[in-house]
């Protein structure tokens, strides 16, 4: 029984030192979180605190639509004038660059994309 208790105490001490070990060097120091910041910058390209509107986003069905990332964002009130079908209840057509995107009003999920229909 003494051997079992001694082994348990030894294992608990090893586990304690492993938990107290510092994070790898890339997470400490002056560059902490640098990878996350650069990803966020590359994803949204900020210019003086505002989103840049010149970056084209390839929307896919099921994506969450973010109007700040859409170039030339506008709600299309007359879809028939652009040869689009009327949106079902709870959806609306929006413009993103030259694309018409069917977006759920409350969820913001992309339901359909009509590429290059707006010029």
N to C succession of SSEs: HHEEEEEE
Q: Indicate the percent of residues in helices.
A: 25-40%
Count of beta strands: 6
- Average of the residue pLDDT scores: 75
Largest pleated sheet: 4 strands, antiparallel
Secondary structural class: alpha+beta
Low-pLDDT runs of 5+ residues are 34-44
Q: Tell me the strand percentage band.
A: 15-25%
From the spread of the alpha carbons, the general shape counts as rod-shaped
Helix tally equals 2
- The structural domain count equals 1
Strand order of the largest sheet: 3-4-5-6
- Give the CA-CA distance, first to last residue: 82 Å
**What is the CA-based Rg, rounded?**
26 Å
Describe this structure as you would to a colleague:
The structure is a single chain. A four-stranded antiparallel β-sheet has the order 3-4-5-6, with no helix packed on it. It is built from two helices and six strands; from the N terminus they run H-H-E-E-E-E-E-E. It is rod-shaped, with a radius of gyration of 26 Å. It has one domain. The protein is of the alpha+beta class and 119 residues long. The model is unreliable at 34-44 (pLDDT under 50). The longest helix is centred in the first third of the chain and has 19 residues, at 2-20. It has helices spanning 2-20, 34-44, and strands spanning 46-47, 50-51, 74-76, 91-96, 99-104, 110-114. The protein starts with a helix and ends in a 5-residue tail after the last strand. 10% of the residues are buried.
